[in-house]
Amino acid sequence: MKRAIIFGATGGIGQAIAKRLAQSGWSLYLHCNSHWAEAAELGEELASLYPDQDFMPIQQDFCAADADLKKFVEGLLPVNAAIFAQGITNYDFLGSQSSEVIERILKVNLENPIKLTKLLESQLLKHDHSRIVYLGSVYGGQGSAMEAVYSASKGGISRFAQAYAREVAASHFTVNVVAPGAVMTPMNAMFSGETLADLAEEIPAGHLANPTEIAYWVDCLLNPESDYLTGQTIYVSGGWLE
Fold first, then answer.
1. Can you list the positions of beta strands (E) in 85-159?
2. What whole-number distance in Å separates Cα of residue 157 and Cα of residue 171?
3. pTM strictly above 0.90
């Protein structure tokens, strides 16, 4: 059975990834940090559509200590793939951000994904075609003012993926980053309709991405035929910035 864990499955992009992978025959762990009701509802929806697959909501604080992360991974059934779709930002000047905010962004977006990758490695190496996909950002390639720490975390995950992919490539274990540009998700709800319309005019494709347009590329990377693509950051941005 193909089984993947989607970290951040209740987010706008995470839900789209879950629905796409379920359609492709994957059983899924649907991770949430705090939105348990949404994760349970998503699991029920997918189970009704694909009764021969398993959909298991699972909760874990992404700022947890190392011991808690280890216990979390030890409680999982074997997985073939891990998708890190979680992510947080704080739209503000660096000088106005507290140390606690900076530490949380780095822990959620970079530090704990790396630690979880280490913990998952032994079981992923047991499979013929294992996959890790991180959700990066166009801002990992070109930093964004007002999101300096977020940009650093997303740039960091791209460089980590590039390096780590070289360690495990001989095992048909690929490690890649899908880096969206502007996407219509709740993360962008802080901006006015006028601001989003102005942004769309800057994007050569003429619109913000739908989360399904990001999920498509994650699905492609999980295909066994994608063994030869590893260590890459794929910018799905409509031609914007990268």
1. 130-135
2. 21
3. yes
